């Protein structure tokens, strides 16, 4: 004999009910089957909604009633196309009485818990009748048995307690007397000893099935639902969650108690002592293995088996110096809650006994507060304790596993993983049995917390990075192409799963929290919503994904101004935009501080030398205890390009134009030619070397003429370059006469920085610097005479994109 229970989705449509019938039919070939069914999916909620509308004198209840009616009539018509009169009459009668009940509630303006149970029982009464008739219409031998005649409870309406003695007797007697191969029973509903309709609590059909299974000591209880078992965590919130093959009863109980809705928590109790295994299966995918819950796999060795969450939690804190060393406070607190029938979900107490924290359902918070404040009225008046503090909008997340007690460091990993993602923990509870470690966090952070804990404990091998790129011009586009090309390699070799979740240019922006399809990003972006810098930030905040990285591929001051906001949300920042790190020293310092405080990396390797590892090398030198004594560098790919191509057979303005067209200069070439860009770069290197410096402190002797420097637009600038051609030819001729090359050099000596054009003699490391290359020479305590030299292409979209990419990977490898 087997007991099978089918949930709301499984009986949610004619198609799914046909699946159920096929499953029952195949089982019945070998066994006697008892089938417990839920209400059609969503109907219990609709019944409660109609009830609450009616109670509030809202005539809209009849609209909800009509929906309920149509759903059932549609199903029956599809299941039994030529339904006979009797079936339709029975259903119409039931619906009619339901309507009368709702009208009654509307008239008297009252919905007691007792009436609520009467109301919700229609869900299961209707579904079980329909399924039994559908089976009969297919010629199958199935009988309906109303569980209300079997399951007897007290009068604790909406969540009644079972009288096992009477219930077991009823069940045994009934099933002894029937020879039916298949019996259909409604779940969830029951009767009190005094003859009233009761229910077993929301989700209670699972419990009905367990009660029947235990009374008859069947060999297996199967819970058929809409997912393939009990998952490592809620599959609706974590895409990577997967079904757990085997669980102990204790683990299943903890997981369900802490929110894994797939199993109603009391379900385990009746079958536990009898060691009847519970098999969770998927009606929509009957072939998948599912989860087996029993006592046979207690020592599977795996420490963490699952993670669950309960939302809508309020945290009550009772505190005050008057509590220390005085017995009876907890007793009075819990007695008060018990009198109000308030369920305590989590308790923590500081060892000083100065405060007790309890987690309860949000909806009980007001009642709890006033009851507790009344209980401790005297102590509050005497200032011995404070009025109770209530914090709402919280959730509990819990790691579950029988074997956690045998492993060190689980809670350490849990909390550091949450901390790294800026998830604030309000309270922690860990039972002495160590089957469960729970933490109270903001409800808003639940999805992120589950995802990062799941990654930590179940996908240790891959780390997901969620990247948001703003600015998809030349460099941004290359970056996306490089990411697309390297995705597979990153996943397989570096165990980094890189998702580009958001993209924006100045016109539109687009998001997909599963990661955008990089084959069609341009089309998606074009169709995206209107872009705004604040809107982009707001959306990243709302998505609240773990390991989020904001990539700034603009040269925009406003974008740079938002870095503090990103960092404060623990969102990493990768920038090729130099503005932030070369802005005033206070701001640079603030960014560094925020990055440390919120554990949000701030990387800007491409600020100096595009893709060359200059800042990273400098950071490594300093971190390993070295000290920079001097830096000599050619840091402008654009200026190097210009002076390498300028001679007495070319003109200066043509060479500058060419550099701009080929993308080697900033959109406004004056930023490069005036030396400002190079000054910003040496400033960043100076700061990264540990110096407190501002841009004004950098000596900048310009090679441009006063007229060049005073132009108001790029066009005027070009015109003035044409007029001053003789000036530039003179610079060239002077260098030429000394057999020197013109190089734009940045230097840092004894804490002083300068930039300017220099005539470099033959033999100097800068002399042969080609094309748009950069070179940096670090003189340090460890490299006093022979400097550490980094040299290579220092400008261009591809190398800059690869520098940004390297920064993203650096974050991934952390
Ligand atoms: P039924 O109507 O079949 O009783 P429920 O809606 O009560 O189904 O429970 C199944 C749902 O439980 C799943 O669709 C899933 O969204 C949710 N759920 C939450 N946590 C888990 C988990 N750890 N494993 C599986 N499902 C879970
Ligand atoms: N129909 C009830 C509910 O929705 C019981 C169940 O589905 O298990 O809560
Ligand atoms: Mg359920």
TrEMBL record:
Protein name per the record: Bifunctional aspartate kinase/homoserine dehydrogenase I
Residues forming coiled coils: none
Magnesium in keyword set: no
Cofactor or coenzyme needed: a metal cation
Highest classification ranks of the organism: Bacteria, Pseudomonadati, Bacteroidota, Flavobacteriia, Flavobacteriales
Organism: Gaetbulibacter aquiaggeris
E.C. designation(s): 1.1.1.3, 2.7.2.4
Family annotation (Pfam families): AA_kinase, ACT_9, Homoserine_dh, NAD_binding_3
Alphabetized NCBIfam families for the sequence: asp_kinases, PRK09436.1
